[in-house]
């Protein structure tokens, strides 16, 4: 058999269709790549050719099926994590609920996306180059998901994510400092974090900054600044800030 026929035979079993429309089908095709086509008359004839082919450095097929699967899996997990963190941040109603309710929120999210917790935990441990991943690993430690509760480690991870300008971690820390949750209550630190969030045009930060100025938490009372930040937050849709403006107008 000629070299040309050998190469064509190899591609018959190992070439990936680049025109596939979605990742799921791609993974299915990748799974089938290493499975011989029993009914194919060329299967028996070409089996030795294929085995010998991989012993030679004639053609290098990159990336390997394992690497492709790994890249697809990691890309999808990164997207899922980013969406989860953003969704959790938007669900401000979670604040103030019992810890078990907060924990359930995340567990339900992964369950709905059919993601194994052990897989996501291992992935988080090995992917600490993204602020959302750092924050979520802190969340796992704080609420005891796949690991014993360790709030000290959680706080360190929250701070690390906050230093990377992660708004969710910054708000979490500000909230904890304001109420003294597992940290020494520190209105000044809370105020500074709310100030940073407000500068990022975040409506929650603006609302809390207005509240700090109104009541003198972490700063001197300043009604004008309180009104200013309530107004900014109200324009972003904050119901609390909108109600505050009505009170200010009376």
TrEMBL record:
Query: Which terms are listed as keywords in the entry?
Result: Kinase, Transferase
What is the species of this protein? Rhizophagus clarus
Q: What name does the UniProt record give this protein?
A: Kinase-like domain-containing protein
The cross-references to InterPro entries, in alphabetical order and at most eight, read:
Mitotic_Regulator, Sel1-like, TPR-like_helical_dom_sf
Which top-level group of life is the source organism from?
Eukaryota
Keyword Transferase in the entry? The reply is yes
Gene Ontology molecular function, alphabetical: kinase activity
Q: Fetch the Gene3D superfamilies from UniProt.
A: Tetratricopeptide repeat domain
Q: Note one Pfam family from the annotation.
A: Sel1
């Amino acid at each position: 058999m000629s070299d040309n026929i050998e190469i064509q035979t190899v591609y018959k079993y190992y070439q990936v269709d680049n025109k596939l429309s979605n990742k799921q089908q791609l993974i299915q095709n990748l799974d089938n790549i290493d499975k011989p086509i029993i009914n194919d008359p060329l299967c028996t004839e070409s089996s030795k050719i294929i085995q010998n082919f991989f012993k030679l450095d004639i053609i290098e097929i990159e990336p390997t099926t394992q690497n492709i699967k790994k890249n697809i899996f990691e890309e999808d997990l990164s997207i899922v994590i980013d969406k989860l963190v953003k969704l959790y941040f938007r669900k401000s109603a979670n604040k103030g609920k019992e810890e078990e309710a907060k924990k359930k929120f995340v567990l339900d999210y992964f369950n709905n996306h059919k993601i194994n917790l052990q897989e996501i935990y291992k992935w988080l441990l090995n992917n600490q180059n993204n602020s959302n991943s750092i924050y979520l690993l802190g969340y796992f430690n704080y609420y005891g998901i796949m690991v014993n509760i360790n709030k000290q480690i959680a706080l360190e991870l929250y701070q690390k994510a906050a230093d990377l300008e992660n708004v969710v971690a910054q708000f979490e820390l500000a909230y904890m400092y304001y109420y003294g949750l597992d940290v020494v209550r520190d209105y000044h630190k809370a105020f500074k974090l709310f100030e940073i969030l407000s500068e990022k045009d975040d409506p929650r930060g603006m609302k809390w900054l207005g509240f700090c100025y109104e009541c003198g938490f972490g700063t001197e009372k300043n009604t004008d600044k309180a009104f200013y930040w309530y107004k900014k937050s109200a324009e972003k849709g904050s119901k609390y800030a909108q109600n505050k403006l009505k009170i200010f107008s009376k």
